[in-house]
Amino acid sequence: MKQLFYLLIVLVFFACNDKKEQTETAEKAEKVYDMYTPSEMANLMNEMYAYNQQLKQDIIDGKIPTEFPEKFLNIHTAQLSDFKSRNETFKSFSNLYIMAEKEVFNPNSEVPIETRFNTAVGVCISCHTTECTGPIPRIKKLIIK
Description:
145 residues, mainly alpha
């Protein structure tokens, strides 16, 4: 009788253990990860950053930029992330940024190019202070000292 009792306990233990493994396997199979897909605006901002990083180096090296990148005008139409909206503040800052960036390429300006470039970067920082604060430390690295 004792042997039958011990056999029953062992069977129950293995039966429970098997169900636990099946449950864990099912839970692992159900996990679906939502991969981040950057918005059109996020991609444009990254391109603008990379361009301005190169522009900063060109200015430091004494190369005067000559042509405003027309792709920057897409700031007015690029699709934003789902949780963002194009409000009046964003529109104002994007217009200011385009004006400041175009001024960097103005060959007739009497303002030093470093100052004009830093002004454009400052507009980026000001906008990101009100809208999306995450990239501010990265943007600050663009400032020419």
